[in-house]
Amino acid sequence: MQLRPHLVLDGLACVAETVGAHSTIVWLHAGAHASHASMVRAIAERRRTGLVEPDVRIAVGPERYLSGESSAIMRALSGGPALPEFRRAPGTTNGVPTLVHNIETLARTALAARPGAALRTPTSLVTVATAAGRAVAEVAGTTPLWQVLDGILGLGATAAQQAVLLGGYGGTWIDRSTFEQLRADEASARSLGVSLGAGVLLPLHRESCGLAQTSAIADYLAAGSARQCGPCLFGLRAVADGLVELVELRAHRRDARRLQHVLAEISGRGACHHPDGAVRMVASALRTFATDARAHLHGAGCQHDGIGGFFPVPAGA
């Protein structure tokens, strides 16, 4: 949206024409100032040129983890809170059938509609996020992900990591050896039992405590609960609290068993998929950092001091 706003709007126009939509909406979070400014300029430019296309407007929602979920968007546009719907039903906004697409899909739709699209090499968008900032790279699907990481963070960056959180806060922790086998395409990830998700890579330095980072993320996800069902309201908080006990060396084996039990209890039972992403992330952390978890249970800690430039978890939900 910041660098190729017209590509996004071209795709939006294509999709609207395909389904016969008379109006379109670009949904943004309140903190996305650069994207907002870029889209405003692009929409104004299109109007000045007299393009014949469905009307497009910008809607701004709260800067909250769940406010980008599709049913939350439609609920907000209908005058309700920007929270996922408890019941799944065909998408409507004020009774009008509504389709929701993410920005990358729209941009790729615009490219697919252009002459010669079939001759283009398939690519993936990969976001590498650290404490120093975020960088997005478009790479061929055959590109090893370790090359992407080294290209953005510097030569040898992959060797300095002990693990990577693949797919964002609702993704999967994988160790470095698994990460080094991945290419920038979903088929490669699925063959190793994981998913690229939104293509977000959060590398964890070898000197950082993966359990401490997971605990911070779990607390953020619990605080961002939609508070509409037990698994989200009570289950995620129980998971976050259990991780705090583990990180602070206050957990015993029975507490570790209780944490595993809670994860199993809430998996697949939420009103939306928010708890599922949190369960996937925490469960994968307990597998990937199993040696550290045992050290924490024995009261010794994992000897990591927590530094290393991991992507900072937002302060609030």
Tell me about this structure:
This protein is 44% helix and 16% strand. It is α/β, with parallel strands linked by helices and 317 residues long. It has three domains: 5-117, Rossmann fold (3-Layer(aba) Sandwich), CATH 3.40.50.11540; 124-205, Ubiquitin-like (UB roll) (Roll); 210-297, de novo design (two linked rop proteins). It has a five-stranded mixed sheet with strand order 6-5-9-7-8. Helix 8 runs antiparallel to helix 9 (230-247) and helix 8 runs antiparallel to helix 11 (274-288). The protein is globular, with a radius of gyration of 21 Å.
Summarize the structure.
The chain has 317 residues and is an alpha/beta fold. 44% of the residues lie in helices and 16% in strands. The protein has three domains: 5-117, 3-Layer(aba) Sandwich (Rossmann fold), CATH 3.40.50; 124-205, Ubiquitin-like (UB roll) (Roll); 210-297, de novo design (two linked rop proteins).
Major sheet size, sense and barrel closure? 5 strands, mixed
- What is the CATH class of the largest domain? Alpha Beta
CATH architecture type of the largest domain: 3-Layer(aba) Sandwich
Radius of gyration: 21 Å
Q: Give the integer mean of the pLDDT values.
A: 90
**Number of helical regions:** 12
The best one-word shape is: globular
How many angstroms does the end-to-end distance come to? 24 Å
Lay out the secondary structure.
Elements lengths: L4 H15 L3 E7 L3 H17 L5 E7 L8 H8 L14 E2 L2 E2 L5 H10 L10 E8 L2 E8 L4 H9 L7 E6 L5 E4 H4 L6 H6 L8 E6 L4 H14 L6 H18 L5 H14 L7 H15 L1 H8 L20
Parallel strand pairs: 1-2, 5-9
Antiparallel strand pairs: 3-4, 5-6, 7-8, 7-9
